[in-house]
Design a protein that fits this description.
Blueprint (H helix, E strand, L loop, with lengths): L2 H4 L7 E10 L13 E12 L2 E2 L3 E2 L9 E12 L1 E7 L13 H14 L4 H17 L2 E7 L4 H13 L3 E4 L2 E2 L12 H15 L5 E7 L7 H13 L4 E6 L3 H10 L6 H7 L7 E5 L5 H10 L2 E4 L1 H6 L7 H6 L3 E4 L11 H14 L6 H7 L2 H6 L17 E4 L4 H10 L2 H12 L5 E6 L2 E5 L3
Parallel strand pairs: 1-5, 6-7, 7-8, 8-10, 9-10, 10-11, 11-12, 12-13, 13-14
Antiparallel strand pairs: 1-2, 2-3, 2-4, 5-15, 15-16, 16-17
Bound molecules: zinc ion (ZN).
Length: about 450
């Protein structure tokens, strides 16, 4: 992006016209007819001061004081929320041939080491956030690297783009190569410094970021838990029960813990601000603990399939009332597109004989994620007063999708086909706080 579009422009009055789709509640599992779905065909979405000002029917055109963008016949959704993704891992997306623990050592750690260099961290952060916007994702919960400069670079780049972003310095003081390990005291100082400088600034929030239990000593986990207590408004993000070898390793390293999740709970890391990626190999007691704490699982189906990690039991999480959001987990995941990720989520559930509706999927990646993050008043819906993070999509690209749309019966069939066939090529424009931050090349 050029310097002019990077600056923080005062948001004029803008109005977008199209088919508006969002949710007023959580759709029930398996229900293709749902009162939670709010579909308003051909409406204007007026945006003032970066916030949604209301809606009005397509034939009631806002006056000339509004910059009108007529996307009649296109779909307008809240921007997607990717609740688990690694900014430095664009460099290792689509890497061949390994499962989680080998994949970390072979591909990921070498790529993350480059982010010790501030220039590498800055260009990487800009590339990553522009890529998110070009895939229709306007908010994310992100792992940069162990290096403090990687966090500064990511927050600064998000601030320039006006984005809602949650991130934190990765904590890792063992079982990682040279150049990627911190120690307890330095890490604590870095975290406090970063929280002080970034948490609550514009749309940025800090997350205490434990990579995963095996790469932190018990002393570091305890320090991370103390940070969560000392700064109750910050988030906590980590990985949980992704892969069977990983789970076995955690059992070896923490024999006193009842389960993998229990390692985190004992350290004071299980709370309502917690975002736990994967959560595949859990039992009912783990799910009860997650529910009791109000923590969420960031389900990452594309990554789980690609790394052969396992099939997430969404139905069991739903039955236990655990909040589930959806995440790309790039670079374990193979695309930053939440639509492709939702397509994979559907297939993972199909393997278990379950049916993931388009409503459940789209809710989990917009309003559901926002609610789980405590941000429902800001993002994830088209409610008046919410920040205008919205994306404009073509219903169909190419002859196959056009034909499918032509014969689709009813709203769910149409939206499900869109969710399954569409990807970033369908994205027409991305607006962040009422400012256009991405537009498809003509
Ligand atoms: Zn991850």
């Amino acid at each position: 992006m050029g310097a002019s579009s990077m600056s923080n422009p005062t948001s004029p009055r803008v109005a977008l016209r199209g088919d508006l789709l969002d949710f007023t509640a959580a759709p029930a599992w398996g229900a293709v007819e749902s009162n939670a779905v709010r579909f308003r065909a051909d409406h204007w979405l007026p945006v003032e001061g970066g916030r949604i000002a209301g809606v009005q029917p397509g034939d009631q055109q806002p006056d000339d004081s509004w910059a009108r963008h007529d996307h009649r016949g296109r779909l307008i959704l809240p921007g997607f929320i990717d609740t688990h993704v690694h900014s430095p891992q664009l460099d290792v997306i689509a890497s061949y041939g390994t499962e989680l623990l080998d994949w970390l050592n072979t591909y990921t750690f070498p790529a993350e080491r480059r982010y010790a260099d501030p220039r590498e961290a800055q260009t990487g952060a800009a590339r990553f956030l522009d890529a998110l916007l070009a895939h229709g994702t306007t908010s994310a919960v992100v792992f940069p690297t162990v290096h403090r400069v990687s966090v500064d670079a990511l927050f600064a780049a998000a601030q320039e783009r006006g984005m809602r972003l949650i991130a934190g310095k990765v904590l890792m003081d063992r079982h990682a190569p040279d150049g990627l390990r911190d120690d307890v005291d330095q890490a604590a100082r870095d975290c406090v410094d970063l929280i002080t400088r970034w948490h609550g600034r514009d749309r940025l929030a800090y997350a205490v970021t434990v990579r995963f239990a095996p790469t932190s000593t018990p002393a570091q986990l305890a320090m991370a838990g103390q940070l969560c207590t000392a700064y109750p408004a910050v988030y906590m993000q980590t990985h949980l029960a992704e892969n069977r070898d990983e789970v076995a390793w955690v059992r070896e390293l923490f024999p006193e813990a009842r389960s993998y999740l229990d390692v985190y709970e004992r350290a004071g890391l299980l709370n309502a601000r917690g975002v736990f990626a994967h959560g595949i190999w859990l039992d009912d007691e783990d799910r009860r603990a997650l529910r009791g704490a109000g923590a969420q699982i960031a389900h990452s189906p594309s990554s789980n399939l690609f790394l052969g990690s396992g099939l997430f039991d969404w139905r069991a999480a739903e039955a236990a009332n655990v909040a589930v959001s959806v995440a790309t987990d790039v670079g374990g995941g193979t695309s930053l597109s939440m639509l492709r990720t939702l397509g994979d989520a559907y297939k993972v559930q199909a393997m278990a004989g379950e049916r993931l509706t388009a409503w459940k999927a789209l809710h989990a990646s917009t309003a559901g994620a926002a609610a789980a993050l405590g941000l429902a008043d800001e993002i994830g819906s088209l409610n008046a007063g919410c920040v205008a993070d919205v994306c404009v999509w073509d219903w169909a690209m190419g002859p196959v999708a056009h034909r499918r749309m032509d014969v689709a019966q009813g709203l769910h069939e149409r939206v499900f086909a869109w969710m399954t066939l569409a990807d970033e090529r369908n994205l027409v424009a991305t607006w962040v706080a009422g400012v256009k931050r991405h537009e498809r090349a003509a």
